[in-house]
Design goal:
Elements: H1 2-24, E1 38-47, E2 50-53, E3 59-62, E4 65-75, E5 80-89, E6 92-97, E7 107-112, E8 114-125, E9 131-149, E10 154-160, E11 164-170, E12 173-190, E13 195-208, E14 211-225
Antiparallel strand pairs: 1-4, 1-14, 2-3, 3-6, 4-5, 5-8, 6-7, 8-9, 9-12, 10-11, 12-13, 13-14
């Protein structure tokens, strides 16, 4: 599938670049380029779909989808980075709900969900120079929103002296916010003292009652450092 091919290309890039990284990093001008610097980045990511079977016969299938996000971090040393990262993906899904009562008919839902991930990550860069492979791990929380309304909408109206009567409708959906954690690896290139690029592969584990939902993601980050 597309994500697997993209992962293969990133692996080839990491292998070929790392071979030359040690020699390139000998240039004194690049030594400690990240040391004590703050950074922000935007990223695009591809999330691989999953299929899960639950006790009682219920199933959940989530499609592949692209998403986006951002991160804010601080380079504690030239090798250690601490950061907060937010990611949003809106994949299509199909859920089959099997009632406990065998007399009731199973129900299938096809819709689009929203997945909001908040992670606090620690990253270790193997080299102090501008081109370096790295590993990353972190934890936080993830909100999974079915976007299915869980009760009738509520409409409220009030009088505004300028606009007249104003009415708004609000509603809530079936959602859950769960503890999550992640681990990954990647390759970073500090283009200069201000710009950097990162490519990474991560697996995110979202804790649910039946165990965990495991999402594989491939990301490309574009960042500023100061």
């Amino acid at each position: 599938m597309k994500l697997q091919r993209l992962l293969f290309l990133i692996a080839l890039l990491a292998l070929s670049t790392t071979v030359h990284a040690q020699r390139f990093n000998q240039k004194q001008i690049y030594d400690g380029i990240r040391y004590k610097n703050f950074e922000v980045s935007l990223h695009v990511q591809g999330q691989q779909g999953i299929s899960e079977d639950f006790e009682g016969g219920s199933t959940l299938d989530i499609d592949d989808e692209f998403g986006w996000g951002f991160s804010i971090g601080w380079n504690w040393t030239e090798k250690w980075n601490l950061a907060y990262q937010f990611s949003l993906v809106k994949p299509k899904y199909s859920a089959t709900l099997v009632p406990e009562d065998p007399m009731d008919v199973p129900r299938t839902i096809d819709f689009t969900m929203s997945k909001y991930a908040h992670q606090f990550n620690a990253t270790y860069h193997f080299l102090s120079g501008p081109i370096t492979p790295y590993i990353q791990a972190g934890a936080g929380w993830t909100k999974l929103d079915s976007n299915i309304i869980d009760r009738p909408p509520i409409t409220g109206c009030w009088w505004d002296p300028w606009w007249g009567y104003i009415c708004t409708t609000t509603w809530t959906t079936y959602d859950t916010t769960e503890f999550s954690w992640n681990a990954g690896l990647g390759l970073r290139w500090d283009v200069n003292g201000a710009l950097f690029l990162r490519g990474s592969y991560n697996r995110e584990f979202v804790k649910v009652d039946s165990g965990s939902l495991d999402f594989d993601t491939i990301s490309l980050h574009f960042g500023l450092m100061w």
